[in-house]
Amino acid sequence: MLSRLYAKWMYDWEFALTTRDKNRIVRPLEWGFDWLPPVPHPESHLNDRARMIALSARIAENSDEFFGYATPTDFRLEVRHPQLFPTNVRPETLARDAELRRKAEAGELKEARFLRFTSPLRSKYPENDQVNARWFPAPRDASNPNQPRQAMIVAPQWNADAFSHNALCQIFNRFGISCLRLSKPYHDIRRPAEIERSDYACSANIGRTMAACRQAAVDIRSCCDWLNAQGFDQLGILGTSLGSCYGFIAAAHDPRLQICAFNHASTWFGDVVWTGQSTRHIREGFEQAGLTQNALREVYRAISPMTYMDRFAATPRRVLVVHAKYDLTFLEEFSQEVIRAFAAHRVDFIERTLPCGHYTTGEAPYKFMDAWHLCKFIRSSFKQLAAGNLDLRAISTPPMPAKDEAASH
Q: Residue 405 to residues 232, 247, 254, 400: CA-CA distances in angstroms?
């Protein structure tokens, strides 16, 4: 009885949080072929849905090329006042944004350092192509100069503002772990002025959504390049929600990411878009065009974690999966499918379940539970890695660029 009442209360709370923002826009289906690599021999006899499914399958089979890149040559650290870049228009959010701007103008806000570079992959938006990652360097331990240098790349959730996950980075610093908090494609400072939300990262434009995932994975790998150049030889990734998908695909294609924390995890990109409460406006656009869940799963095969499970498991690494029992965005059945896949592939992983939902993970007390699991895992894994107690291969070989991307640099 109590468990049913708790479940109802949690689902009601989760639903309220996912419906409070009124600036979600239903957009019509766009196939977006112009956002993806050209097909050498296009199947002109197929309709658009069949062509996209075939293209996605071809990309998945040649993912080294799709997620390949040339290391950026314009890495630089930029110092400026941090801004919020809100994605909703709730009064409390706008008030917080105004207060931060006031403090910056009055000199009351401390400046921060940001890693900036041009993304190896270009979109149609110049502001999106300037990668941004807030830099949280950990102080060096003078008493132990031989201690391995360790760093995490942090990729927050879809539509995160620029302050999301900063507190986690500061906690990791206390453990001696430096952090790059990545602004994902179309997020905060990278968001085009024409949109209020980070909708272009995931929308009814299928090609653009796939291109955003491609760019995010390449940006994460580029951050690894910069960290290696700074002397960091033990690297990890923390991804939340959409950031979890990006982080998984980046790690599957880059063995340097040895510690992986997936904060909410799912399998097929199309299934999440179709069934998730937070993507209901995207599904509406697909339904209007007659698309089905099964078709969407195949359409998004190239950017689905399950597609790359074999190659992710091929590299020994430590993995944490945090999922929520009452999740209306990443349904529990999908998270359990991830757990079964990890077990079947003999991935060295730990599973933790939160007694809340997707959005309520960011509310007290669940956000503290989540932070505890993440921090405990990352700290202990890096300590074991530094002590040589984990059977992991420390790989720091720079990636091979894709031919088409290398030719443009």
A: 26, 21, 17, 11
CATH label of the domain that carries residue 245? 3.40.50.1820
Concatenated DSSP letters of 235-267: EEEEEETHHHHHHHHHHHT-TTEEEEEEES--S
Residue 3 within any structural domain of the chain: no
- Determine the 3-state secondary structure of 89 from DSSP: coil
Domain membership of residue 189 (yes or no) is: yes
Q: For residue 68, how far is the Cα from the chain centroid?
A: 18
Residue 316 has pLDDT above 60, yes or no: yes
Please check whether residue 9 lies inside any domain of the structure.
Answer: no
Task: Estimate the crossing angle of helix 242-252 against helix 206-229, to 10 degrees.
Answer: 60
Residue 154, Cα to own-chain centre: how many angstroms? 8
Confidence of residue 398 (pLDDT cuts 50, 70, 90): very low
Going by pLDDT thresholds of 50, 70 and 90, the confidence category of residue 40 is low
pLDDT digits (tens, 9 = 90+) for 96-152: 999 999 999 999 999 999 999 999 999 999 999 999 999 999 998 777 778 899 999
**What is the edge-to-edge ordering of all strands in the sheet holding 112-118?**
76-80, 112-118, 130-136, 177-183, 150-155, 234-240, 257-263, 318-324, 348-354
Say if residue 404's pLDDT is above 60: no
CB of 184 within 8 A of CB of 243?
A: yes
Looking up tokens 């709730």 gives 90
Domain annotation covers residue 251? yes
The kind and range of the H/E element at 336 are helix 332-344
